[in-house]
Amino acid sequence: VIDTHCHLDASRFDPDRAAVLTRAWEAGVRAILVPGVEPEEWEPLRALCSSDHRLLPAFGIHPQALPGLAEDDDFAHLEQLDAALAKGGAIAVGECGLDGPSVERGAPIERQLRVLRGHFALARKHGLPLLLHCHRVQPALMQLLEEEKLPERGGVLHSYSGGPELAKIYGRYGLYFSFAGPVTWAEARKPVAAAREVALDRLLAETDSPDQAPAPHRGGRSEPAFLPHIVEGLARARGAASEELATATTENARRLFGPALDRALQ
Ligand SMILES: [Zn+2]
Hints:
The protein is of the alpha/beta class. It has helices at 17-26, 39-49, 74-86, 100-104, 109-126, 138-147, 164-171, 190-197, 227-238, 242-257, 259-265, and strands at 2-3, 31-35, 55-58, 93-99, 130-135, 155-157, 176-179, 203-205. The relative contact order is 0.15. Zinc ion (ZN) is lined by residues 5, 7, 35, 95, 208. Zinc ion is lined by residues 5, 7, 35, 95, 208.
């Protein structure tokens, strides 16, 4: 299995990152995608991932990072992102996207959309897929997808939190859907219904570590070794065998992320 979204560079992993990785490999995780969330973290992330060929960095500006960054610097930051991607080694552009709660915290939706369009342009320029975050502003993302085609290499809605109806609409754009811990939570209805609705060849699995730990670890720090619980949750939602979901999500990740992921799996 492949963890398609894990913030391994988060400070919550500083005390025991090596042990976290050992547990992940022992649990059968074969590669981990680590999305960068703001400019000053891209180069440290690149250095972290250079320590193990199974760690694959992506670079982007998370919408939740925007309130802490000066709007006047947005253009310069996108130029910096262009330069970081030009160096090679990134498996995707992201994490980027739109975030409802961040609108109140100082990142108006117009600004978020401008920065996201910048990521779309860079994904096109560098021939990379997008790692998309969209939380509580689904109509704004849908409108953007209507106005501007998804870059050729496509993208994934990470930690998909919309329902099955939205999944149907997003599916028309060719997007992939990645599910995290909530699909295993006892009272979860929307993610389970969505996991059932999404086409098998569009499903991905992620831990979104250190957040959103799956059952039975819910409430604590999540880590990539918990990924099999999420694959099992997807299998339960679809009434299928875990092995079938493990195979499908791995094949899907290889299709979306291409040769860069295949190299990590060798
Ligand atoms: Zn994330």
